[in-house]
């Protein structure tokens, strides 16, 4: 059901908003969809001179996404691969030799954590594992759904010190010094992977495309349809389960990533109260400042990170963060339905007069 919802969501946003009536005679519009990378649906739409050229880029995208999915997976083992799960399984036991992409992701995440509020923490896995287990149980047996006991969460929170992640750059190893620690890179891994691949595709010569990886949008160049200068991206109304059904707004972008965080994405119910998956590390409970936030910035890894951090901060702090980061823009949707936009976001929004040209 989750995959089908995302699939419909992606088709709505990318088919309805990205289609063009006429195309540059030298370029043709193609699309490709594949499943399972990062447990979601990925769709690519782009303009190339031939279908063979587009197919080559699509094949590369899928193979590379699956490769990074396996490296950043915390749930499954793969023969001949040391991944995030391997690191977690050996917490407190031994350093694990890993690929450079894992070391780079950890360093990227740690640097952002150190230079921000610290709320997005890849060492928070012990707490998130508890929430994940209770959410899964609640989805299977809704009548007996429960919140995790606070004493259990507090005990797990003592094993979330990001400085206990020991990276050996020379020997390319990662070691969790705390045997009860677990990495969870869910707030950054997909966006980081998308950004890595985006640069690789650009280097290969693919310069007019937009992709959605489970709703994480990354665009490059402009649509080569002789009609538009910018791509259109729908902003989902959190009261609607499907993109395209009364979108909150549409924004127009070039060379940008658009990532959302909200209480409507992964949740279960306890006594008719929706309990979502974005956990505040201070309260150890789901954050409740907003229904949703959407952020825009060029780098998809940064977009993934900041969408969570912006969601976890009260508005004054959240707005100050957005205003302090060059190129970062955001829209906030509050529980009472009111909306705030950063000034740069307004300049991109259809509701504020922006167009695709």
Give a structural overview.
The protein is globular and about 60 Å long. With 357 residues, it is an alpha+beta fold. The protein has a domain at 89-176: ApbE-like superfamily (T-fold), CATH 1.10.3980. The longest helix has 22 residues, at 51-72. Strands 1-2-6-7-10-13-14-15 form an eight-stranded antiparallel β-sheet, with helices on both faces. Strands 3-5-4 form a three-stranded antiparallel β-sheet. A two-stranded antiparallel ribbon has the order 8-9. Helix 2 (51-72) runs antiparallel to helix 7 (189-203) and helix 7 (189-203) packs antiparallel against helix 8 (300-312). It has helices at 2-18, 51-72, 84-89, 100-114, 125-140, 150-157, 189-203, 300-312, 315-324, 343-348; strands at 28-35, 41-48, 96-97, 165-168, 173-176, 209-213, 216-220, 231-235, 249-253, 257-262, 267-270, 273-276, 292-297, 329-333, 339-341.
